[in-house]
TrEMBL record:
It comes from Lentzea guizhouensis. Gene3D superfamilies: 3.40.50.2020. This is uracil phosphoribosyltransferase. Its cofactor is Mg(2+). InterPro entries: PRTase-like, PRTase_dom. CDD domains: PRTases_typeI. GO terms for molecular function: GTP binding; uracil phosphoribosyltransferase activity. Its EC number is 2.4.2.9. Residues 5-208 form the Phosphoribosyltransferase domain. Belongs to the UPRTase family.
Length: 209
């Protein structure tokens, strides 16, 4: 479990996006800023290899080379809000898609579709979904990746906010999957929404209801 440092700047951005009166423009602008921080934190968990370079003054800098065997997998729909943030920092990154929707009444996830790179089994995966609530959607998506041969420890689940119930669901079933988030909420309400939460992320980000 990797929680972003709870800086005043992060809390100020969370205050804007959690306000029910925030405009859609404010919501998109500030969630995208936080998503950028989350993506950077997720990338930091991937492996790096040593790399030396010569500086302009002829000295050697002993540095690192970023792992290139990466694929980003947004869980459609709300996860697509995180795709641009990943593309902005990893040039030419491969992108797979998994379409899962929670049933409006039962809140159980239904898998409709997936499209993933042929060689995904040998890649590290940043699985992207801003909401980890009951964990049903995350568990279903992780199962899709494992069925395609992805190694559990190669999955980093990047999520905007979560609750103890969601963390427990993922960590107890898949203890080697890492989770990166910007906030841990108090609990779920009777409709499986997080409290204090943010409401329906997908609807607020994409402007639907
Ligand atoms: C939301 C959210 C997550 C899921 C989390 O998706 O985007 O995917 O619920 O809930 P869970 O942890 O209880 O499964 P939803 O299917 O409501 O719609 P959307 O992605 O189209 O907005
Ligand atoms: N999906 C959301 O968009 N919000 C929640 O609080 C839970 C699931
Ligand atoms: Mg969703």
């Amino acid at each position: 479990m990797h929680l972003l440092p709870q800086t005043n700047q992060l809390r100020a951005m969370h205050t804007i996006v959690r306000n029910r009166d925030a405009s859609r423009e404010e919501f998109v602008f500030y969630t995208e800023r936080i998503i950028r921080l989350l993506v950077e934190a997720g990338l930091d968990l991937l492996p790096f290899a040593p790399r030396d370079v010569t500086t302009p003054v002829g000295a050697t800098y002993h540095g690192l080379r970023f792992a290139e065997d990466l694929v980003g997998v947004p869980i459609v729909r709300a996860g697509e809000s995180m795709e641009a943030g990943l593309r902005a920092v990893v040039r030419g990154v491969r992108i797979g898609k998994i379409l899962i929707q929670r049933d409006k009444v039962t809140k159980l996830p239904k898998l409709y579709y997936s499209a993933l790179p042929e060689d995904i089994a040998s890649r590290h995966v940043l699985l992207l979904d801003p909401m980890l609530a009951t964990g049903g959607t995350a568990l279903a998506a992780i199962q899709v990746l494992l069925d395609r041969g992805v190694v559990e420890e190669n999955i980093v689940f990047v999520t905007f906010i979560t609750v103890p119930e969601g963390i427990e669901a993922v960590c107890s079933r898949y203890p080697r999957v890492r989770i990166v988030t910007s906030a841990i909420e108090e609990r779920l309400n009777e409709n499986a929404y997080m409290l204090p939460g943010i409401g329906d992320f997908g609807d607020r980000f994409f402007g639907t209801d």
